[in-house]
Write a structure and sequence with these properties.
about 250 residues; Rossmann fold; about 40% helix
Length: about 250
């Protein structure tokens, strides 16, 4: 899947059911998320992250945070409670537009559209925290996932903390992703994204993974300091995931 196709898919999903696209709970499908409840999940997630960060002793400062793959700002808003400036970045223009609408009362949140395979719009060592959860897993190409990890590390401040989540293993039955293939083929046949989703529940979400040892090798090549690796089950039934907490040496 190309980056352009990925962008198209998330734009479509963002138009149809943006909150479910970000946080997939079956009982919340078809625009059933309560907006307050939705953002509260982000507040709890970041509250837990900040407890872990305190234990790890990073970041040293709380000036700026980056939420990579921000969607409508679920975590960007939560990070803004702890940092002077909170930036959300996403490949989907529809998601960014929605994020700006929903977070108007949070002036220290800034949302940025980026359709590039890099983060060159940011300088080296710019953010005290770089955070991304349930995002990298939607990239299928290992090379693209690794390139983004390198970029997330590059923009991290020397005394900062990078946390990224990534599946470590997918069972073979989950690697087939039949529903995504069906969605893609039927879209090419001319059926609308809205019809496929509302009629058959088909949507374009992809799922990729990189084994932990490969991720560790990549981080070692960057001379990163790995503070903690947590086992995580947020990537869905049967999928084994990891959360990596990283700082610069």
């Amino acid at each position: 899947m190309s980056l352009k196709q990925l962008q198209k898919n998330w734009d479509e999903f963002g138009d149809i059911d943006p909150l479910f696209a970000i946080l997939q709970c079956k009982e919340k499908q078809y625009n059933k998320w309560n907006i307050g409840e939705f953002f509260e999940t982000g507040a709890r997630e970041i509250e837990n992250f900040m407890r872990v960060s305190t234990k790890l002793g990073h970041p040293m400062q709380r000036e700026s945070a980056l939420d990579f793959g921000c969607g409508v700002g679920r975590l960007t808003r939560a990070l803004s409670r702890y940092f002077n400036q909170s930036y959300g970045i996403d490949i989907s223009a529809s998601m960014i537009k929605k994020a700006q609408e929903l977070n108007q009362s949070y002036p220290n949140c800034q949302f940025i559209f980026n359709d590039k395979a890099d983060l060159r719009l940011f300088s080296d060592n710019q953010f005290d925290v770089v955070y991304t959860n349930l995002v990298l897993q939607h990239l299928l190409k290992k090379s693209l996932i690794k390139a983004y990890i390198e970029e997330l590390y590059r923009v991290l401040n020397e005394d900062g903390l990078l946390m990224f989540q990534l599946p470590h293993y997918l069972p073979y039955r989950n690697r087939m992703q039949i529903y995504r293939w069906a969605y893609s083929l039927l879209r090419k046949a001319g059926l609308s994204a809205k019809y496929l989703y509302k009629r058959w529940g088909l949507e374009p979400t992809a799922m990729g993974f990189i084994p932990e040892k490969e991720v560790i090798a990549l981080l070692n090549s960057l001379d990163a300091s790995i503070l903690e690796v947590q086992h995580d089950f947020s990537a869905g039934p049967g999928n084994l995931s990891r959360k990596y907490y990283v700082t610069k040496r």
